[in-house]
Amino acid sequence: MKKEILVRILASLALICMILPMLAFCVRADGGGASADIFKSNIPKAPDMNGVAGAYVYNVDNSTEVLAYNGENRIYPASLVKVAAFALASEKLSGRLDEKVTVTQQMLSGTVGTYIGIEAGETFTVKELFYIAFCGCFNDAVNIIANVCSGSVSAFVAEMNLKAAQLGATGTVFTNPTGIHNNGMYSTMSDLGKILLDASRDPLVMQITSTSKIELEKSEDHDRYMIYNRNMLISDRTTAKYINPCANGLNAGSTVESGECVATIAKKEGLSYLCIVVGGKEQVTDDGEKYITSYKLINELIDWSFESFGYVKLFDSSVPCADLSVKYGIDVDVVSVVPDGEIIMYLPLSFDVESKLDYRMRFDKPEFEAPLKKGDTVGRMTVLYEGEPLGEVSLKLTKDVEKDTFLYTLDSIKAFSQNRVFLLTVVCAIGYTVLFTVCAALLRRFGGGKKKKKNNSLI
Length: 459
Fold this sequence. Notes:
The chain is an alpha+beta fold. The protein has helices spanning 2-24, 35-40, 81-93, 105-108, 126-135, 139-150, 153-166, 189-200, 203-209, 293-308, 353-356, 405-417, 420-446, and strands at 54-59, 64-69, 100-102, 123-125, 213-216, 225-228, 247-255, 259-268, 271-280, 282-284, 290-292, 309-313, 322-329, 332-339, 344-348, 358-363, 368-369, 377-385, 388-397.
């Protein structure tokens, strides 16, 4: 009987052991604006603005206004008006560059200021007129072009004003296409930024205004003309002290009322800046050397822009940014994560990334279990400046993590063994086994009745 009881107990325990692993492996794991502010609030000190009426610096690549000194003050733009005229003329005539234009007296009428001396009856191609007007900055050629484009200077100027309004230059009024002073013709530094930026996107405008000099040889159509660029950042015709190898195109000029004005696109190491300075004047150093304040300042602004601003990594994507706890890894319980990519911003180069930025980590799960693969995405990292997000990247694992199956099984059994349902099941099973064994023993002992006595009588 004892042998049968033992067999029954062992059978019951075996049944429980068969059910337990199946239940254990069914358990599931728990699931679970600012860029403009950061730039403006960290701009380093700019060069001294003394001796000029206005200055403007704009990063073309990132559409970022870097500096606007007296940005909304009304100023007289002088020959910077020619850049607006060129942009409009290029729209109308860039497909007719080889077309010949015979000059009439009507085209030359009303020409004042600087002129090269074109005479009625001479014939030029449109491209030649562009070089005379916008490289050499001669007013007679500008008026000829205005007539070719629109039939008259006044009609051309009306179109210039319309285009300025379309660009959002609402503080600008043109009265002529040459820049000759008129009290009713004015602009602002911010408006000039919009107008000149638009012009700088025209390859023909940049090609011709970047040319330091060009010779138009004498022909049966016209006399010989030697054209020198009036912008002293580009041409050394007058002096070489303002030459800047970063300068590309646009224009320069002056009137008594406007002062010395100059504008260019400065390019270096993948960055481009629109730089404009107006209202300059001639001054003398302590050593007795004469200089023009607008040219001095624009060269200082070009140097300052390239030295002070650039592309800054908001973090090093090769350096782990957090450690992730991992369950059931073979000899591993922690694995590092790194950003999956980079966030690069155009910023002041002096910007201290480590002290001024915060990094917020969000993981996809509260807990991760092996196996895991290198490169798996496990969450996101947000970069913040003063509480405002600048950008976000994924977080990825730096190495593989293999699964320790034995550890996982033991942990699963442990977890299941602490489950109330399991404990109740065990208690019931033990109770059932004990009850079954007791009942079986009692039945065997008392349920069979009295045994018959053996008859040992002799016959």
